[in-house]
Amino acid sequence: MFKIGDKIVYPLHGAGIIEDIEEKEILGEKSAYYILKFPVGNMKIMVPVNNCEDLGIRYIVEEAELMRALDVLHESKNVMDSNWNRRYRENSEKLKSGDIFDIADVVKDLYIMDREKGLSTGEKKMLNNAKQILVSELALVRDLNNEEAEELIKECLKE
How far is CA 38 from the centre of its chain? Predict the structure, then answer.
């Protein structure tokens, strides 16, 4: 069980901080909820304490893992399906996993593909979403603001 002040990652939303734990009655059922604040987008959400494992919520990574994830951004593009629909589904699965290496992979591959031949509107949105998820975790691990974290990711992608 997480506690107030813990820095966690909620797949598809990014990294945030547990601000509070509240008991709420919803649809006649009392449950404990984490109140999460996400620095990117300044969003707050409630997550049932009992659902954290099912949702894939995890602690943010340590600096060493973060470094390895940033190294992924330097690698060459993976072989990707030429069918945009299958490619979109594969990338969606990677994002849902919440794994920082999978997220870095999606950012890198879509960024390279965008530079080479452009992306569909859906894939551009996915690239931006994946980048924001990576930015949010990087910002919390290194105690950076969003702009600094985004700039660091841009630098990694350019090299």
Answer: 11
**What CATH topology corresponds to 63-158?**
Methane Monooxygenase Hydroxylase; Chain G, domain 1 (1.20.58)
CB neighbour burial string for 4-15, b if at least 16 within 10 angstroms, e if fewer: eeebbbbbbbbb
Identical fold for domains 7-59 and 63-158, yes or no, is no
pLDDT tens per residue, range 106-134: 999 999 999 988 898 999 999 999 999 99
pTM: 0.90
Residue 83 DSSP class: S
Burial (Cβ within 10 Å: 0-12, 13-18, ≥19) of residue 58: middle
pLDDT at 149 over 80: yes
Q: Tell me the domain boundaries of the chain.
A: 7-59, 63-158
Question: Where does 7-59 sit in CATH, by number?
Answer: 2.40.10.170
Query: Where residue 81 falls among pLDDT bands split at 50, 70, 90?
Result: confident
